[in-house]
Amino acid sequence: MTSSNGVVLDVQRLRMRYDESDVLHDVTFQAKRGEVLVMLGPNGTGKTTTIEILEGFRRRSAGQVGVLGTDPEHGDEQWRARIGVVLQSWRDHAKWRVRELLAHLGGYYRPYATAGVQRPWDTDQLIELVGLTDHADAKIATLSGGQRRRLDVAIGVVGRPELLFMDEPTAGFDPAARRDFHDLVHRLADLEDTTVLLTTHDLDEAEKLADRILILAGGRVIADGSPDELARSVAGESQVSWTVDGQRFVHTTTEATKYVHELFKQHGEGIGDLDVRRASLEDTYMTLVRRADAGEAVHTLAEVTR
């Protein structure tokens, strides 16, 4: 069962040690139902280890972990049927056809359907959902790289999961396929109430998808908040630019919303070309990781705003 306050992931002081090396240091975060949480961080910082622990594939060294109200080390088949995983690649038989494979895999979830969640997805609906209708009868060996990733996503959600893990899900996607994938993630979160935890190195993608962003560096959480909150916690200032009677003005302020409100009170419809710029997610990410690498004290958003 999910906790009464809607928490789907509850990670407290998670630690992971290999021999004499600590990979994760007191990692703590939560995710709620229907939330898209994007995990960022340099390679080797503990993202994959964290996700493998949450999926129940790796035993932690210390800390408390709750996934859909269950410790993943003790999750049974009923629990696992509520979770979806999109791997970086899926090893299968190239001679399978798309519809055949999804129908076959979906059959494993049928015993775990409930009154509230019908499992699995209808095969043709799922194929349409991921944009493979024109290739439903194609052999997997004939799919392009982007089509192959769409199939990987379909495999991950075939059981209609309440929680979905995705590791670099859009690797190999062209811009159109990436946009379709973003629409799919939003649909899963907004309409199916699916909680999504994904990793990516694409900061633009993270900004478009994330309700919250978690940044790991050196095995520690160095930031946790929405893209806007993280930008404000680092930059603090915004640049407001506008025109009046063809003349351009620029002003830097820590209270952009209040400043814009005053502008419109003063100039009304005379305001043109209004633009408010805060630090980009890339600026924020690079600043936080650089501080962590330099050994500077980096506070999570909760600590900054406490």
From TrEMBL:
Localization (cell): Cell membrane
Domain ABC transporter: residue ranges: 9-243
Classification via Pfam families: ABC_tran (PF00005)
Family annotation (PROSITE patterns): ABC_TRANSPORTER_1, ABC_TRANSPORTER_2
CDD domains membership: ABC_DR_subfamily_A (cd03230)
Domain of life: Bacteria
GO molecular function: ATP binding
Keywords, sorted A to Z: Antibiotic resistance, ATP-binding, Nucleotide-binding, Transport
Membrane topology: Peripheral membrane protein
Protein's recorded name: ABC transporter ATP-binding protein
Taxonomic source organism: Nocardia rhizosphaerae
Lineage, highest ranks first: Bacteria, Bacillati, Actinomycetota, Actinomycetes, Mycobacteriales
